[in-house]
Backbone:
């Protein structure tokens, strides 16, 4: 079945950054066949279905490349303590923070995890998100990590979205291994990675002085790669303990947060082709002061992505549009950088470059249509959603009046 989307303005987000003022897209069986100016559509074209977009903007479906959206419970009481002055790191050292969510998540069944993750996922889907990364990391025991990863993949079978899962067993040291982080990492490397490899598309870790050291992440990544799993890393969020250098050495798909990264870190990420994922909602919610080295990342040519970081601690909420707004306002990214950061570069951060994240021949037909006058308006609104249609693998899966 041949479908044509016509009378739209198109930002392809492809490597040539083609923009068409009066454009059209042809797709068949969920794959883009052609995109270009509407007046270059083949004469006598017979489409089975024509979707008239009346001048709306069309972009690739958005890719949220860093979320923790499967978890149980919430941490509102902890947020109240933090707004009253206690730091995120102090709460973590007391055994709260991530470990608080671990207690709630261990007590939840797979069905409960799916049910609790669902409204957060739906909130992202309504914003034009068609691909989302979801991490484990609140189970921290083999069964509970497996349950989180299964819940994440189940969300993809029950909703029109591509889910990419990351095993984040190295998110915090679980109570069973308190004071013995090296033994925990060894257990994850020897037993959990082989057992969970089939549930995970990548392996992630939290490299921080309140979490795992660069040497521990290095060992974990060595074991992951020996199993053929790509890696990504939470690095230099609250301090610099050498995470981005480890990530670069292992050719990580992405290195995320990076507030405390240096010029040399940016150079290393550029050499390894690693995507730098900006998480401005966490920066905002933790009231951080140290900005990521945006200029250095640009200068070295590191691809920049932007993600929601949806999680119950540092980024409670599920809005990629808000993250885009904050990436512009707080980090000074341009509207073009932000759009690429939630499309082509975000897809690359998930190892999906060339398949998703651009509107180009051969790519999956994942689109978002926007009721906006200019592309600048995407990432301008804070707390308002101008997305009016979502297309997943060629099917219209959501239409909203805007
Ligand atoms: O990306 N930094 C570590 N992980 C999350 C926070 C998780 C939590 O606080 O529950 C993040 O910000
Ligand atoms: Fe995170």
Residues:
């Amino acid at each position: 079945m041949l479908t044509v989307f016509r009378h739209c303005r198109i930002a392809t987000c492809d490597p040539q950054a083609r923009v068409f003022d009066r454009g059209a897209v042809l797709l068949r069986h969920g794959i883009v066949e052609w995109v270009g100016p509407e007046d270059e559509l083949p004469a006598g074209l017979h489409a089975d279905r024509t979707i008239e977009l009346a001048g709306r903007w069309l972009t690739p479906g958005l890719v949220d490349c860093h979320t923790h959206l499967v978890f149980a419970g919430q941490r509102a009481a902890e947020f109240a303590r933090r707004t009253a002055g206690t730091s995120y790191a102090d709460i973590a050292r007391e055994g709260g923070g991530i470990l608080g969510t671990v207690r709630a998540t261990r007590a939840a069944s797979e069905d409960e995890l799916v049910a609790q993750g669902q409204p957060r996922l739906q909130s992202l889907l309504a914003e034009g998100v068609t691909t989302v990364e979801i991490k484990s990391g609140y189970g921290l025991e083999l069964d509970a990590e497996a349950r989180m990863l299964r819940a994440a993949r189940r969300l993809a079978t029950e909703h029109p979205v591509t889910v990419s899962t990351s095993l984040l067993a190295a998110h915090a040291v679980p109570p069973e291994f308190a004071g013995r982080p090296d033994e925990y990492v060894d257990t994850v490397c020897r037993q959990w990675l082989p057992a969970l490899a089939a549930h995970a598309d990548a392996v992630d870790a939290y490299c921080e002085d309140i979490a795992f050291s660069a040497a521990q992440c290095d060992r974990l990544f060595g074991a992951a790669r020996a199993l053929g799993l790509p890696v990504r890393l939470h690095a230099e969020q609250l301090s610099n303990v050498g995470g981005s250098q480890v990530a670069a050495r292992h050719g990580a798909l992405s290195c995320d947060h990076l507030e405390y990264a240096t010029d040399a870190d940016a150079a290393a990420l550029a050499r390894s082709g690693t995507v730098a994922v900006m998480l401005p909602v966490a920066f905002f919610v933790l009231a951080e002061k140290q900005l990521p080295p945006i200029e250095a990342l640009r200068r070295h040519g590191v691809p920049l992505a932007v993600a929601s970081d949806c999680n119950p601690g540092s980024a409670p909420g599920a809005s990629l549009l808000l993250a885009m707004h904050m990436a512009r306002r707080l980090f000074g990214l341009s509207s073009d950088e932000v759009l690429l950061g939630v499309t082509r570069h975000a897809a690359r951060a998930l190892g999906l470059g060339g398949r998703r994240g651009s509107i180009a021949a051969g790519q999956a037909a994942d689109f978002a249509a926007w009721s906006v006058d200019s592309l600048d308006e995407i990432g301008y609104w804070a707390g308002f959603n101008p997305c009016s249609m979502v297309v997943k693998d060629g099917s219209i899966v959501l239409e909203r009046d805007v």
Remarks:
- The mean pLDDT is 98.
